[in-house]
Amino acid sequence: xxxxxxxxxxxxxxxxxxxxxxxxxxxxxxxxxxxxxxxxxxxxxxxxxxxxxxxxxxxxxxxxxxxxxxxxxxxxxxxxxxxxxxxxxxxxxxxxxxxxxxxxxxxxxxxxxxxxxxxxxxxxxxxxxxxxxxxxxxxxxxxxxxxxxxxxxxxxxxxxxxxxxxxxxxxxxxxxxxxxxxxxxxxxxxxxxxxxxxxxxxxxxxxxxxxxxxxxxxxxxxxxxxxxxxxxxxxxxxxxxxxxxxxxxxxxxxxxxxxxxxxxxxxxxxxxxxxxxxxxxxxxxx
Length: 286
Description:
- It is built from seven helices and five strands; from the N terminus they run ααααβααββαββ.
- By secondary structure, the protein is α+β, with helices and mostly antiparallel strands.
- A five-stranded mixed beta sheet has the order 1-2-3-5-4.
- β4 (255-262) and β5 form a beta hairpin.
């Protein structure tokens, strides 16, 4: 509802309520004396307008909060666009220049193994940079306007933007509908971190993502068949800064993270929200 329509609705509805009460009073309550009638009018009007204006101001507070969130969101988008432009205009162009020079060196000394290593390092840095630029350029909509499927699909582009990799996504919409805006946004950031790590370190050929619901529990699992790592300390990855960061982000919204990895079988990261306990903080309002 627009603010102009809301203003007229408040004014006209208040007048109509007063007129309706006076009509009912004179039509059906004529047996009540004038003095007691005035007392009833005062009590009725006080109770009525207390709840009425309470509802109005509650709506105004929600509208104010939403406007502030939109303002903050636009400020964040503006800053992200500025950073993306800087990365593209400076670092991306520098990497392109280095790649050209590496190709020129390769023509002069094609058998040097260091030249191939240099080209691979430049290609990896360029891929990582373009993935970050792509990540900075998304999330144009407000978090509450985006469902979990769109968030997962967009972040998954990090894996397929510049390389051939088999990606399988299975999303239970019944599970996604329970997640509130804060949780969806946080999951998007966590997935972005997971996908970047897979692309940079795992050397995987396939990645699978599954979002499922079991009773009052929601489970998000990301598996890859790349080069895993040795057994980790605890459930969140021991000394790995990236895994600790992921675990902290998920735990902040009431979830839990478990990591299973083996150098020969790849890595599986499971994120679980239990809506019978701490996961209530991530539950979407009905």
